[in-house]
Structures
1.
Amino acid sequence: MKAFLVWAHRNKLAGRLSISRPPHPGLALSGPDLDERRALLGSVTRSDNSLPAATKLAAALVILFGLQPHQIVKLQIRDIDHEHGKTRLRLGADPLHLPDEIAAIALEARANRTAPRLFRPTTDSTWLLPGTRHGRPLTSNALIRQLRGLGIEPNPYRTAALGTLAQTLPPAILARLTGLSMTNAIRWSTAVAASNARYAPLTDLATTTGADSAENTPAEPSE
């Protein structure tokens, strides 16, 4: 539409138009709470279940770091390295050091990459999550279906994870570790700060109310 309006104005078929963009509503911080995420992460990544390592890793990356499915399916073997007892995953400019339990899953996923092609599993030498077509990764939609089968709705879990990270990491670090753009990292940090600012007066009010109630409660007569 923009190209058409520019063309129409250039050819004197329309006058100059000024269209203002509506204000961005901002990020709404919500999603599963920390206890729920911990419980689901433990259930998905435990060693006695039969899930493929790649599926476990994808679930962990959504729950812990808020990655989107389209980011996960683009991960390649070279994005995981293991040196001096540390496993690192490169999502952004700086490598992300994985917790030991997730590191073990990542190394297993890197070592065992199979995809069902022509009715038999075929190994892949590029993609961490190979797809059914030769030389192509798993599709985002296929990964979303896998995650939903585990009870992980990607968007709410992404929101919860990034909200948690933005509370503890400066925008620049958040962007370099997770692959977010600097603009989006700032948006997340701003949203967290705004949420905390809204919550603080409620906390102060609750504390004050509780103190006032305690002061105004008549003392019980001593026996």
2.
Amino acid sequence: MEWTREQRYLPYEKWSALTLLKLQSQAAKSKYQLHYHIHPTSGLLNDPNGFSYYNGQWHVFYQSYPFGAVHGLKSWVHLVSDDLVTWTNLGQAVLPDTKLDSHGAYSGSARQIGDKLFLMYTGNVRDQNWVRASYQIGAWMDEAGNVTKLDKPLIEAPDHVTEHFRDPQILMHNGKYYAILGAQDKKNQAGKISIWRADKIDGQWEDLGYVDLPDMGYMIECPNLVFVDDKPVFIFCPQGLDKRITAYDDVYPNMYWIGESFDFDSGHFVTKQKAPINLDYGFDVYATQAFNAPDGNAYAISWVGLPDSSYPTDDEGWANCLSQVKKLSIKKGKLVQKPVAAMKGLRRYPESLAGDLEFDEGGQYELKLAIKKDQEGTLTLAADKNFEQGLKLSFSTGSHASLTLDRGNVGADVNVDYGTTRSLALPKNRELKLRIFVDHSLIEVFVDGGQEVLTGRFFAPAGNTYAKMSTGIDYKGSLWQLKDM
């Protein structure tokens, strides 16, 4: 189906309930549907928003277009959890229903203030000539989930940025409120992180300029600042970044930058890191949202999907998902991402693995492996009975140690213009520890305790759920089926 602009921005009330029900049924029956990750009930899911802790529960929202697998008139869908693993979908919470967000409720963040949750997000507005204006909007959500928007924007785009100015994150420091936003500087068309300050969250906001990171391509999206092991960490998505600065394979990368200190008022960022580092070495992670929770830990969740990309489920009227939540720490100057402890609560039917590895656990499992040093082999997942097709994870633990994820022969093609393999170098002559999560059309590989992560979508034919490792590999392993969330 070829979508027109008029269809994409048709008001929600113009769509029939029957259309939505058909889309929901189609998505629910998909052989590619996920069972322990957040996914859309219909249409398109993209950026995670409002990741926060409020009223004794974890909250996350996702940007949604419920009527098709395209980017159209966006709203926010709200989910809550008691453990960061099992999420309950509460439905739409923020609709594009005012003059400040008439063409979409775009990305933003949330923070508990008093007995309410304050939301701050980008309202997208287009004039009759389709020229865009963006407004940073505030809204209060009460304990019953009722959302009341402020009638005036908190922040309007300053003169020194282009129309690309969005994705606010709310922060608090020394009794004052701060917000960072992705921006494109008007003078040199460079990607920047803009920083703002206010005494009251719903009061007057002051422009403090840019964070003093180097120019990052032509635009920065979804900037986050978290403190991990007392160090400031920026997580962001630079568009158009020169690959001589940091190599990446996707259309746009998701990266991080660890600092030693950060001055909120001047934007001065002190760092020993020479360049941004890839947050994920797989295929599909973007728009990660992270925050510091009341327990002192930093947690992150990502959109598993990419801008300007298509996926096989588009033809079924739905697209994309969110990653599992990861707990962040720093080890030897690198960001470590680990599954939260509650992921173990999904495990059932444990098996200890030994000898030549071959199994069929369906499409929903966790596999834990420790592969001894000085070996080479391939682990094939999501394969047919004859292992002629499959998702391949090739490893070397010798003097030229590496790990490669190959989705080139697993089933339906996915964004092949950007390659079908993703690789990373590993410490040489060392044991390799892998913790692998498979959820029907999603794989998440945690390497050496989360020092690296590879995430990717794959679309294998129904019934291709077999797994096998090269013969003669010296390893220890465990396998669990995983429950639905």
3.
Amino acid sequence: MHEYSTMSDEVICALGAAVGEDNVLLAEPMSAHTTFKIGGSADAVVLPRTPEAAARALDVCAIADVPATVVGNGSDLLVGDRGIRGVVVLLRENLSDVRVEGTRVHAQAGALLRDVALAAADAGLSGMEPLWGIPAAVGGACHQNAGAYDACIADVLETLTAYVPGAVLPDGSRGKGSVRTFGRDELAFGYRESRVATDGLVVLDAVFALVPDMEASICARMDDYQRRREEKQPLELPSAGSTFKRPAGYFAGKLIMDAGLRGYRVGGAQVSEKHCGFVVNTGGATAADVNALIEHVQAEVREQFGVELEPEVHRIGEF
């Protein structure tokens, strides 16, 4: 039995007080909360309905020394078959408000980029079009500076408000965190990286600064990006998006294809026949299947081309 399989009643009650008793789910399968449709159960999943509730839940975990994992849309995650120990703070749907004020769009961390882009288009605001097909929530997109079609979150983000973990105290415990607003230039954005990730910040909401344009023109660009995605990406099967980061001077998908791995399978996991940069779940794939497939692809590309592929998908939990 894992360490946190029966979390103390005290911690469970504290989480209930932080987010509401009905918003604490025990032994919740993570396969229901990832786009890969893979993953064992989390000891507890909490569903904060406000940024303040999310901060309170994170404080409970910090003070009780219980691991906390923050999940948005689960679109870049591979959760281990044995699940996640501790608490998952789930932001999708329950912390997903989007509102437009002038040329700015305010979005909570659990809002999908798609919904942010649609709200912007309805208001005649441009800038989100290349990002709208990325199946990420705002928090995760800021965490890794998500991007597509030569655009990224850093191009449109103005500020974000985040939970900052508390300091480690002399006895080794951690105190309460704080909530702070950061400007874009404070966040050290790079290719699939940011200060949000390196400093362990938890995004609560974000503000995007956009520019006015004709709604019809914005929608036409969005339709074009969507058409390109549907033509090239295996959107019909569960995946975690692009499996590998783009290696300098190469394209991961082409390297994998040239290595003869198109359609290669391990169990229910497969290198997509439509786009070799994607590993897809053809049905019943386990995290172990995906892991083994990733390692095989890395080994073949390394041996044949001398290129090291770094996974873009984040592997969390117990495998």
4.
Amino acid sequence: MADTRREIERKYEATPGTRLPDLTGTAGISSVADQGTVELDAVYHDTADLRLAAAGITLRRRTGGADAGWHLKLPVAPGVRDELHAPLTDTVPDDLAALVRARTRDAALAPLVRLRSSREIRHLLAADGTPLAELSTDTVRAQRLGGKKVTAVKWTEIEVELADGTDPALLDAVTKRLRKAGVTVSDAPSKLARALAETGRRVPDRTPPTGSTAGDRVLAYLHEQAEALTTYDAAVRRDLPDSVHKMRVATRRMRSAFKTYKKVLDPAATGPLADELKWLAGELGTDRDHEVLTERLTAHLDAVPTTLLLGPVRARLTAWAAAGRTASHQHTLATLDSERYARLLDALHALLADPPFRKPARKDAEPVLAKAVIKDFDRLARRTGTALATPAGHDRDLALHEARKAAKRARYAAEAAGPALGKPAKKLAKAVKGVQKLLGEHQDGVVAREQLRQLAIKAHAAGETAFTWGLLYGREEGEAERVERDLPEVWARTAEQGRTSKLRGF
């Protein structure tokens, strides 16, 4: 994988000959060191319809300067991006292309804009000489490549990029000082964005649709989840913490929306896509479930007194976790590189571009969405009642798992309806989340007990004592009993919130 660094910067408008104020004494800046001028030549790549630019992503091949090569910048927050660097080659590196494949899909990446910059560099230093930030003044010449020939444009901008470990508050202090000198923050989020605007290219608007009908609200929610799925695709490929979980949640939320709001979107059209999203969630589950289970078993083992750690239990758990982690992540990457996943993304974007609305989609959102949320809550109530009435044991474990799935769907339904139904829907979602969390703990315990049993069997077969594994198994049983004792009270509070929502009609 390419080298990665977190980039925190701010850009400012400037005119030729702009004089920078003295920044010494600003937010711990003790001195400013002139580093000379470098000439940079960057060619930016994107699809013909600017899919990367629309997502705030830049991909460039740059020569000149200390970091010549390919740079992929992925947005994290306003003014914050992760920059991935790969060596200089003639074509886009495969690992960088893979990170944007969920965006580009079947569209080719091609050079679209060339930026040549003359960069004057200054280092902002602390009293001990430690670099706090780099300040650069760039004279930029932009030229559109391919298609209609457009005259090159030119501008000057100032950029301040923090060094690793510098407090972001320095940017605010520098901005204040520059503003007093007549230098203002740039409206353009990047050089590429400005170059596209200056050379007559219009970046597609990625703002979700707005409106007050049921169709508008459901479609906006689906756009939000599709964007989350696409964003976390790159994070999963980079193996970032919790990324698999978040990507999996996006698939579940879309599936739930298709089921909950089947009066709004034709299930004949959404059904096949829901099946594919279920497949994707299942494939991602291999990685996520192993991650959750490893964390749970490790935490339990850490809580056992050393006098009760009999045999090589920690080594066995570590070996199991490492082997499973490698295999599960490779499986996940293979899934994301598969043709089936590519077809799923195509189908999802096609559905969002031309949603299969039914007649209720044209109605006001509140009554349509409220009815759907109440229906899902009633489903949860039935399943929870069944689980509570089932004797303890395997059948109750299964019933509680079914209730957990119903809780997720009811929660997602209320969250999706939140913008239309307001505070009552948000309160209901919060209450149901509490039930879902408790039921999730129970299901995690069911899975953990089975894995502990397998580890104990392997330990015994290897001539090791299975005492500690049995101890952990017993503790998991105790945790399950606690959850089952707490559930009636937690459910009673949630049921009351559901009744209140029904009476108010949201």
